[in-house]
Hints:
The complex is a heterodimer. Chain A has 2 domains: 6-42 and 384-431, no CATH class; 46-211 and 285-366, Cytochrome-c3 Hydrogenase, chain B, CATH 1.10.645. Chain A is 43% helix and 18% strand. Chain A has 15 helices and 14 strands. Chain B has 12 helices and 5 strands. Chain B is globular, with a radius of gyration of 19 Å. In chain B, α11 runs antiparallel to α12. By secondary structure, chain B is of the alpha/beta class. Chain B has 2 domains: 4-151, Rossmann fold, CATH 3.40.50; 163-251, no CATH class. The longest helix of chain B is centred in the first third of the chain and has 12 residues, at 63-74. At the A-B interface, α1, α4, α5, α6 and β9 of A face α1, α2, α5 and α9 of B. Iron/sulfur cluster sits between chains B (12-13, 15-16, 57, 83-85, 90-91, 136-137) and A (64, 67, 160-161).
Amino acid sequence: MSEKKRRIISVDYLARVEGEGALYIQMNGSTLEEVQLKIFEPPRFFEAFLRGRDYREAPDITSRICGICPIAYQMGAVQAMEAILGLEVPEPLRSLRRLIYCGEWIESHVLHIYMLHAPDFLGFPDAVALAKVAPEAVKRGLRLKKIGNTLMTLLGGREIHPINLQVGGFYRLPEKTELLALKPELEWAREAAIETLRWVAGFEFPAFEREYEYVALKHPSEYAIHEGRLVSNLGLDIPISEYERHFEEEHVARSTALHSIHTGHGAYFVGPMARYNLNFEQLSPSVKALAEEVGIAEHCHNPFKSILVRSLETLYALEEALRLIELYQKPDTAFVSGPLKAGKGHGCTEAPRGICYHRYEIDANGLILNAKIVPPTSQNQKTIEADLRHLLPLYLDKADPELQHLCEQAIRNYDPCISCSTHFLKLEVARA
Amino acid sequence: MKPKLAVWKFASCDGCQLSLLDCEDELLMVAEALEIAHFPEASRAVVAGPYDISLVEGSITTPHDLERIEAIRAQSTWVISIGACATAGGIQALRNFQAVEDFMRMVYARPEYIQTLSQSTAISEHIKVDFELRGCPINKNQLLELINALLNRRKPHLPSESVCHECKLRGTVCVMVSQGIPCLGPVTHAGCGAICPAYQRGCYGCFGPSDSPHPAALSQAFKSLGVSEAELVRLYRGFNSNAPAFREESLQHE
Ligand code: SF4
């Protein structure tokens, strides 16, 4: 075809994603020749330097994979070690872990809703620009985000790379009074989360739905956050220890990331939409009622609407936090321990962006022999590329800048965390 | 015209730049005082340099990084390295003690796709840095203080003593003396507010070495608590393993 028809859209440095990545799209007339999500985050080799470290160091080291979801890494690591040592973390320590994880969901989801995703729908480059026309909304977002961080700080010592989680439990337990002091702000936040949901429900969403395989943890008695079996809408139902028998990683050229696929099935979808579609029944009555109000009761298959799901999950996490705080009674000991032994263990929890898998093998001295960590973004990456392949043909009449913006938005639907996936993004659209 | 702020990322976890977005109470005020001209993690808008303040997160690990950091220096009045990655090479500097090719084979099936340097190094090893903020992650109050000081052309108040000093200010009973827990606080740069000892654990040195540390004496004290040579190496080889004082002390026990 003639050169006139060739279009190249190329975004060198994707904005408002966590980490560094690029997108390259090449079209010839109406044919999409290439869609590439490129990661140029430099490799940091976590799995390699974990070898030879003490098993107790794994949570603090792996935390540094990602400053946005450190609890996901710490929790996966401690669970794997606890599995090796045969430790069962009793109540109320187990609930306290769920509580700090609620803090991470709130902080991370609200960051994405208000600072990374909402500006896309409203046509602003960032939340600061948005604040000039909608100061009340942005201030509400910041205050809401802060309560997530306050929970992290109380239970974890600080909001980024908390220091209080250890194999078997915690180092220091909070007093009930310290937790109760957060109640008034959490109660404000619960109302603010409902306002957030109603605010984002007013956005315009591109009509875009596909069939996905959703993969998430499922727990018999609660909306899974930090424990459960791995399930999918296509019949997968396995203990986390079997993850590597069902999922594999491909190392993609020109990238420092590893893409995951469900063996024999292909791309799959993890994160808030996966959890929501698989575990909707376990949300609270108030969250379900609001889901109905905004028109996504039970299911949501449009990734652009993931901002609604994140808002509902934020509300859920706030309700959970209030519930867990009421129930808390400070126990006598902050952790459980047991004799050291060699073995292999697995950990898998629902990071804000989706399942984060860990596997470690340790020797009889507690030194790590090998480690494997699969973060959520590398699992979603193939699905993001597939979304772009489906989306682009629908919008070929758009000019390059609009098309580029739409593509960026489609990527941000996944709240991709590039630092994690290098263990992500620059955008290039080439139209030919 | 408002002074221009740029945020740059090298090899890192994004935690230090997130500290700026975590200033929930101050962020909009900061945006009043400064033009946020380049901050890809937070904004699509990019305003061209030169910049008044460049915050640099992350360590230098690729050939391309070397070019980028020079270009950042050339268009910035003040360059501030933020965090252990930028000030000491970060956790990824653990490669400096091993052959990076081995690391690559362990993580990637196709190591030929990866371009990396054998060492992870601090920003100041490559360009002149005007200020450094320590920590893994940095303390956001220190970040606000430094920005404030620069905007008001005054000297920033940033502590340079050890974490021990902060424990005393906080009224924390010494975990090493009272419970025999090995703690890097005596040789670690202040700035976190002595969080770990207040949570019943030893400091793990994430703010790097204090100004004139005596790690050899501390290692002796650790040994009398039963800490092995191998454990000593691991203690100093954490998030600041390539900071000279920690690096040298770890080599003493290898
Ligand atoms: S210093 Fe620590 S918190 Fe800061 S970017 Fe590096 S790893 Fe992340």
